[in-house]
Each structure stands twice: as structure tokens, then as C-alpha cells.
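Quick start: read one record
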Amino acid sequence: MKKKLCLVICLCMLLLGVCGCGEDPKKADYNGMTYDELETSAKSLASNLTESEDAQLDEVISYYEQYEDMPLVSLIKRWKELKPQLGGFEKLGEFSIDKSGKTLATTLVMDFENRDITLTCVYNYLDMQITDMTLDEIYSLGEKMQKAAMNTLMGLGTVFMILILISLVIYAFKIIPYLQEKAKAKNAPAPENVPAAAPAVPVIPAVEVPVQDDTELIAVIAAAVAASDGALAADGFVVRSIKRRK
């Protein structure tokens, strides 16, 4: 138990020693430049921005655009955009250095009446040449929360709009076949004139004519014919047919 306790104490002391051995950023060497030199460079740049008139800034932009010094040109244009809403200049605030790999960035806070901003200069650590310079507004916690809420609402609104659009497309699939059928019916050739069918003739039922037995009638007619010829019997002639006259 004592050995474990001693081991834990030794580890804690080792960690404290490592933390205490950290290099002071103000005394460190930044590839030939000191902390004070970097701070002086950033403050000098900030002072030139706040003290220069718009006409002077335009001349600087025209001059450095010829030499394609775009970081400085972009910085001045950004300053001209922010200047109307910052208010009066008050003071230069905290300065800090952040080194990561082959990149070194310096940050200087600039205090104004309406809103504070930060001046950031990015260096290539191999040759300590400035590769980028930016001015960023410093937002309060309430403004950050409001901005986050607006971004959330915009994201949700975009999602709902896409869902509504997808619903409309799916609903359109039901209408498309109907429109296609309607278009086919409209473009179909007109049918030729077909004569109307004649009305059906009513069927008249046949009337059965009763068949009469003409044997007696034939005998009477034969006797009359024989009497008119002076004969006593009808053996001398034959009745072939009998035709009625109306």
C-alpha cells in the first residue's frame, strides 16, 4: 500500500514539474522574432488603420494591388466595411500568440464604442512572412445565442421546404397519368360518319287462315257446269282449279 501511494505522489510531482517547465511565450524565440516584436508589429498595423483617412486607405489599396499584396488589401477593405458600425476607437487590448505546426498566428483585441474586434495576422513559421490578415467582430453571449437560434431556424425551415417539395412531387405522380390520358383523348382522330342503323321493323305475327274443305264446292260447281252444257253427269270433264274473284 505504501509503495502504491509513493508511486502516485511521484507521478503527481512529475506532472507538476513538466507543467512548470513550460516556456514563457514572452521569452520564446519565434524563428528570429520575439514576442515584443510581434506585438509591436500588430499594434502598429492597428494604429495605422484607426488613424488613416478613407482617401489614404484608397491610395494604399491602389498601391499594394500593383504588387499583388492581397492580404493587406483584403484587410483594408474589411476595415472600411466595419468602420461605420464600430464607433469611436478607445484602446488596444490583449495580445496573444498561437503557434501550430508551421503556422503562427497573432491576435490583437481592438476596443471600440459599439463593438470590439480582433486583428489576426497569420505567419508562415518557416520564413515569418505574413500569409493572411483578418478583422473579426467580437459578439456577446446573447448575440451568439441569437445567431445560433437563427441558424437553427433556417436549417429547420430548409428541411421542411424540401419535405414539402418531395410531397408535391409524389402527389404529382398521381396526376401525370390522368393528364396523359386526357392528352391522348384530345389528340385522337375523330371517328368517321357511320350511318345510323335503320329502326327495327316490328314482326307481325302470321295469321293462320283456316283451310276449307272445297270438295263439296267443287261438286256443286261441276254439276252447275254440266247442267249448263246439257249433260246429266260430270264425267265428260275435269275441274282443274278454282279461282276466286273479288
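Residues 16-21 have pLDDT under 50 and may be disordered.
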